[in-house]
Design goal:
By secondary structure, the protein is of the alpha+beta class. The protein has one domain. Helices cover 44% and strands 15% of the residues. It has helices at residues 13-25, 31-40, 57-66; strands at residues 10-12, 47-49, 52-56. A 3-stranded antiparallel β-sheet has the order 1-3-2. Strand 2 and strand 3 (52-56) form a beta hairpin. The chain is globular, with a radius of gyration of 15 Å. 8% of the residues are buried.
Length: 75
């Protein structure tokens, strides 16, 4: 019996800050940005294992899609 690697889709806060920032704005976000977003309830969902924080990539993608907004109409 093969046990699947359950951590495959998880990403560290440091790596998420780097990848998300580079993809969205061309330079990494600070880890402190993700910490602030978490405290304000604005960021992607986190998984905490003790003091360690990790992000489930499919949840990050869902969070990112949820940020979409229709453009405001110019008056």
């Amino acid at each position: 019996m093969t046990i699947p690697e359950i951590t495959t889709n998880y990403i560290s806060r440091k790596e998420l800050a780097k990848q998300l920032g580079e993809r969205l704005r061309g330079r990494p976000y600070s880890e402190f940005t993700l910490i602030a977003w978490e405290k304000d309830g604005k960021g992607p969902p986190v998984t905490r294992i003790g003091r360690d924080v990790t992000y489930f990539w499919p949840s990050v993608e869902r969070w990112l899609r949820a940020q979409e907004r229709a453009p405001d109409r110019a008056a």
